[in-house]
Amino acid sequence: MTDTSRSATASAPVVLVGVDFGLPHFDQELEELGLLAQTAGLNPVVRITCKRKVPDAALFVGSGKADEIRMLAQMHGAKEVLFDQALSPAQQRNLERALEMPVNDRTLLILEIFAQRARSHEGKLQVELARLQYVATRLVRRWTHLERQAGGIGGRGGPGEKQIELDRRMIADAIKRTKERLQKVKKQRATQRRQRERRDVFNISLVGYTNAGKSTLFNALVKARAYAADQLFATLDTTTRQLYLTEAGASVSLSDTVGFIRDLPHGLVDAFQATLQEAVDADLLLHVVDASNATFPEQMDQVHKVLAEIGAQDIPQVLVFNKLDALEPGQRPAVLQDSYEVDGVAVPRVFVSARSGEGLPALRQLLADILLARQEGAADMTPDDDANL
User: Fold this and answer.
1) In Å, what is the CA distance from 338 to each residue of 56, 145, 159, 334?
2) Tell me: the pLDDT tens digits for 160-189?
């Protein structure tokens, strides 16, 4: 199936390719990959999908489909080909030779966006570490300069060190330095968390699929000016503010975290451990869901998958179904507050519009009720109970 995009811009033209292996989350229209490409400043001009039982070991899509991709890319003046799935280094190298143009995958595209969007020192370090770890797997005979150098005194003698070995050592050293610098940042964050714990602050973290409206909700709740936009990965750096709940007569700590996405590179999950630690250490997670997106159940599953990877799956949640204003009248819920079953457990749910403010009073009241219940539970503990914890 091919589809020529009509929303061309002055950005670099690229071809989008997706392969349907029969998995339930396959994006037939490559909509999300297209949004990722546009977020990175690229212009999708052609979208190509095909079906296969398993990836072709050499070219991922097979030689026939590769010829079709090359022909369409030349026809539309494309300068690059982007695959919706992760490619092995060998597949990427073989495809570049067959298509005679740069070939990249979803993983690198996400890394590029993160590199463009990171603002804080910590965020830049995390992106750099993930990028280095990705590049380290792409060294094997990918570039023409990876040849054996001559060694010995006066330029003669035994063979010297391969360029690829130099590259590997340089990347390994860079990874080591970046990890050490990140470790210092983690220690600083741990100190800040201990200070909050000593003050007995109730910690809430916003989590959710990218572009679900977390930053808009964050701004609406704490009257902040965190960057928010209708695009993927608008927020990369964690922002924490105090949220005063009038209904409870107390303040809580509210953190806005990076959004999740399908097939989030494991390197990014590992590299962003310091940022995602805010979610791991939270007392409550506000799982923000784009209620206007028809695929929200799959997006929720992806969020839960990442939460499990970072050890935050057992933290209590409140589901915030956002973008109520984007629903058609017939799609609006009968009530704005109910419960939603997640893995057989009923989880509190509130429908809101972070943009218009509808439903926010109910959300604030729910958060106040949870905080008051926690305070009452702590007050009911006997000294013996406290000593046994």
Assistant:
1) 47, 62, 72, 10
2) 456 667 778 888 899 999 989 988 887 887
> Do residues 381 and 332 touch, judged by C-beta distance below 8 A?
no
Strands of 95-177, DSSP E = 103-105, 148-150, 159-162
**Rg of the chain, C-alpha, whole Å:** 24
Tell the residue number behind the tokens 């809101």, with chain if given. 352
Q: Which residue type, as a one-letter code, is found at position 86?
A: A
| Rounded CA separation 131/108 (Å) | 8
Cα–Cα distances in angstroms (integers) from residue 299 to residues 111, 181, 224, 289, 324, in the given order: 20, 33, 26, 8, 17
Burial class (CB in 10 A: 0-12, 13-18, 19+), 199: exposed
CA atoms within 13 A on the CB side of 329: 0
Asked if residue 253 lies in contact with residue 173, where contact means CB atoms within 8 angstroms, the answer is: no
Distance CA 217, CA 256 (A): 9
Is 15 within 8 Å of 69 (Cβ atoms)? Answer: yes
Using one digit for the tens of pLDDT, what is the confidence trace for 293-352? 988 999 999 999 889 888 889 999 999 999 999 999 999 999 999 999 998 999 999 999
**Rounded-to-integer distance, Cα 101 and Cα 12, Å:** 13
Residue 284, token pair as written in the block? 């409550």
Among the listed residues 338, 340, 336, 305, the one whose alpha carbon sits nearest the alpha carbon of residue 322: 336
Q: Is 328 helix (H, G, I), strand (E, B) or coil?
A: coil
User: According to DSSP H, which parts of 142-290 are helical?
Assistant: 163-198, 214-222, 266-271, 273-280
Exposed / middle / buried, residue 288 (Cβ in 10 Å: 0-12, 13-18, 19+): buried
CA-based nearest residue to 244, from 358, 355, 371: 371
Name the one residue in this structure whose structure tokens are 């590769």: 66
Query: Is the distance from CB of 247 to CB of 159 less than 8 angstroms?
Result: no
pTM (global) more than 0.90: no
Q: What are the tens digits of pLDDT across the range 265-303? A: 776 776 666 667 778 889 999 999 999 998 899 999 999
**In 3D, which of 295, 181, 312, 331 has the Cα closest to residue 257?**
312
Enter the tokens of residue 228: 């928010």
Closest CA to 193 of 277, 276, 260: 277
Q: Terminus-to-terminus CA distance in the chain, angstroms?
A: 60
